[in-house]
Amino acid sequence: MKPRRLPLGDMNIIGANVTKIRLDKGIKQKDLLARIQSLGMEISESCLSKIEGQTRMVTDKELVLIANALGVQPEDLL
Protein backbone atom coordinates (compact mmCIF):
# COMPACT_ATOMS: atom_id res chain seq x y z
CA MET A 1 0.00 0.00 0.00
CA LYS A 2 1.25 3.46 -0.86
CA PRO A 3 1.57 5.83 2.07
CA ARG A 4 -0.91 8.70 2.17
CA ARG A 5 0.66 11.85 0.74
CA LEU A 6 -1.90 14.28 2.08
CA PRO A 7 -3.53 14.48 5.51
CA LEU A 8 -7.12 13.31 5.85
CA GLY A 9 -9.73 15.90 4.99
CA ASP A 10 -12.88 16.79 6.88
CA MET A 11 -15.62 16.22 4.30
CA ASN A 12 -16.83 12.93 5.83
CA ILE A 13 -16.31 10.86 8.96
CA ILE A 14 -16.29 7.38 7.40
CA GLY A 15 -13.23 7.50 5.14
CA ALA A 16 -10.66 6.38 7.67
CA ASN A 17 -12.94 3.54 8.82
CA VAL A 18 -13.55 2.42 5.23
CA THR A 19 -9.80 2.21 4.71
CA LYS A 20 -9.18 0.41 8.01
CA ILE A 21 -11.92 -2.17 7.48
CA ARG A 22 -10.90 -2.70 3.85
CA LEU A 23 -7.28 -3.32 4.82
CA ASP A 24 -8.22 -5.51 7.81
CA LYS A 25 -10.23 -7.69 5.43
CA GLY A 26 -7.42 -7.76 2.86
CA ILE A 27 -9.51 -6.07 0.17
CA LYS A 28 -7.72 -4.02 -2.47
CA GLN A 29 -9.21 -0.65 -3.30
CA LYS A 30 -9.95 -1.74 -6.88
CA ASP A 31 -11.80 -4.81 -5.58
CA LEU A 32 -13.89 -2.70 -3.21
CA LEU A 33 -14.62 -0.39 -6.13
CA ALA A 34 -15.89 -3.35 -8.18
CA ARG A 35 -18.08 -4.53 -5.27
CA ILE A 36 -19.60 -1.07 -4.83
CA GLN A 37 -20.23 -0.75 -8.57
CA SER A 38 -21.89 -4.18 -8.65
CA LEU A 39 -24.35 -2.91 -6.02
CA GLY A 40 -25.43 -0.14 -8.39
CA MET A 41 -23.39 2.85 -7.27
CA GLU A 42 -21.69 4.76 -10.06
CA ILE A 43 -18.28 5.50 -8.60
CA SER A 44 -14.81 5.97 -10.03
CA GLU A 45 -11.46 4.99 -8.55
CA SER A 46 -10.76 8.67 -7.93
CA CYS A 47 -14.08 9.10 -6.13
CA LEU A 48 -13.44 6.14 -3.80
CA SER A 49 -9.97 7.49 -3.10
CA LYS A 50 -11.49 10.85 -2.17
CA ILE A 51 -13.99 9.15 0.14
CA GLU A 52 -11.20 7.26 1.89
CA GLY A 53 -9.15 10.45 2.06
CA GLN A 54 -12.16 12.26 3.51
CA THR A 55 -12.09 14.94 0.82
CA ARG A 56 -15.52 14.04 -0.62
CA MET A 57 -18.91 14.05 1.07
CA VAL A 58 -20.84 10.77 1.33
CA THR A 59 -24.62 10.47 1.02
CA ASP A 60 -26.69 8.17 3.20
CA LYS A 61 -27.31 5.84 0.23
CA GLU A 62 -23.58 5.68 -0.48
CA LEU A 63 -22.90 4.89 3.19
CA VAL A 64 -25.23 1.90 3.04
CA LEU A 65 -23.80 0.60 -0.25
CA ILE A 66 -20.20 0.94 0.93
CA ALA A 67 -21.04 -0.87 4.17
CA ASN A 68 -22.73 -3.67 2.19
CA ALA A 69 -19.72 -3.95 -0.10
CA LEU A 70 -17.46 -4.31 2.94
CA GLY A 71 -19.81 -6.78 4.65
CA VAL A 72 -20.35 -4.56 7.69
CA GLN A 73 -23.19 -2.54 9.18
CA PRO A 74 -23.38 1.16 8.29
CA GLU A 75 -22.84 1.97 11.98
CA ASP A 76 -19.42 0.29 11.77
CA LEU A 77 -18.29 3.03 9.39
CA LEU A 78 -19.38 5.88 11.65
Please tell me about this protein's structure:
The protein has 78 residues and is mainly α. It has one domain: Orthogonal Bundle (434 Repressor (Amino-terminal Domain)). The chain is 55% helix and 0% strand. It contains 5 helices and no strands. It has helices at residues 15-24, 29-38, 45-52, 60-70, 74-77. It is globular, with a radius of gyration of 11 Å. The model has no long low-confidence stretch (mean pLDDT 94).
Quick one: biggest sheet? none
Topology as H/E string?
Answer: HHHHH
Number of helices: 5
CATH fold-type name: 434 Repressor (Amino-terminal Domain)
What's the helical proportion of residues? Answer: 55-70%
Shape: globular
- Kindly report the average pLDDT value: 94
From the structure provided, what is the oligomeric state, counting identical versus distinct chains? single chain
- Over all CA atoms, what is the radius of gyration? 11 Å
The CATH class, by name, is Mainly Alpha
CATH superfamily: lambda repressor-like DNA-binding domains
Based on the coordinates given, report the CATH architecture: Orthogonal Bundle
Could you list some keywords that capture this structure?
single chain, mainly alpha, 5 helices, 55% helix
Give the SSE layout.
Layout: H1 15-24, H2 29-38, H3 45-52, H4 60-70, H5 74-77
Short description:
The protein has helices spanning 15-24, 29-38, 45-52, 60-70, 74-77. It is mainly alpha-helical.
